[in-house]
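User: Predict the structure for this protein chain, please.
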Amino acid sequence: MTNLSMAPVPAPAGRGTEVTTETRPVRALLIGIAVAFLALFLLLPLGAVFVEAFRVGASAYFDAISEPDALAAIRLTLIVAAIAVPTNLVFGLAAAWAIAKFEFRGKSLLNALIDLPFSVSPVIAGLIYVLLFGAQGYLGPYLQSHDIQIVFALPGIVLATIFVTVPFVARELVPLMQEQGTQDEEAALSLGASGWQTFFRVTLPNVRWALLYGVVLCNARAMGEFGAVSVVSGHIRGKTNTMPLHVEILYNEYNFAAAFAVASLLALLALFTLIVKATLEWRYAGQIAASRRH
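Assistant: Here is the predicted structure, written as C-alpha cells:
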C-alpha cells in the first residue's frame, strides 16, 4: 500500500518555483531597464519640479502658493473637484449597476458612450461646450437673455471636468460587478429585502474598494485637467484659472519659481494619489479573488 503521507507535495506557486525561463542576467537587465526608464522619465522630472520650486528659497515658495491668485486657483480647483467627483461617483455607480446587473435595450450603447471621453480630445470636449453655451453658440442667446453664464465661468469648468472624468468610476465597477454576478442580490430579494436595501447592504459593500479606487483616479484627473478647462475657462486670472492654468500663466510670464511652486502642489497630489492607488490596488486585488471564490 502506498504511504500517502510520504508522497511529495508540490511547492506552491511563487515559493521556490521558477515560473520564468529567462536567465538571471537577463532578468537583471530587464529590471535595470525598467528602473532606469522610471528614474529618467518619472523620478528625475518630479524631483526637478521640487528643486526648481525651492531654488529661490522657502520664503519665496510659500509666498508663491499663498498669493491671492494662487489661492483663488487652488480654491477653484477644489470646488470643481468637489462637484465633479461626486457627480461621476453617482453616475458611475448607477451606470455600472445597470450594465452589470440588468438586461435592457441600449445597454451596449450606454457601455460604449462611457468610453467616449477616452477617444475624444479634451480640447474638443471644451469646444463642444463653447459651441453649445458660448455667446455665439446654439444656446448662447437664450442664456444671455436670462443672464445665465456657462462658458468662462464655474459651470462651464465643472461641465468640462465632468465630461473628461466620466469613465473612471464606471470602468472600475463594471468588470467587478459582472464578475460577481447577481446571485447575492437574488438571495437578498428572496429573503424579503427591498431593492434599495439590496443595493446598500449587498451590492455597495461588495464593490466599496473598487468604488474608492475609481474615485481616487477621478479626483486626480479632475484636479489636473488642463485641455478642456483651458478652452471653457477664459483664463480670467483670480476667477476662472484652476491650478494647471495658473501654472501655465506663471510660466509664460517667466515667473519660473512661482510656476514650479504651484506645480509642486499638483506633484504632491500625484504622489498622494499614487500611494492611495497602490494601497487600494492591494485591497482591490483581494476583493476580486474573494469574488471569484464565490
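Confidence is low (pLDDT under 50) at residues 1-9, 11-17, 290-294.
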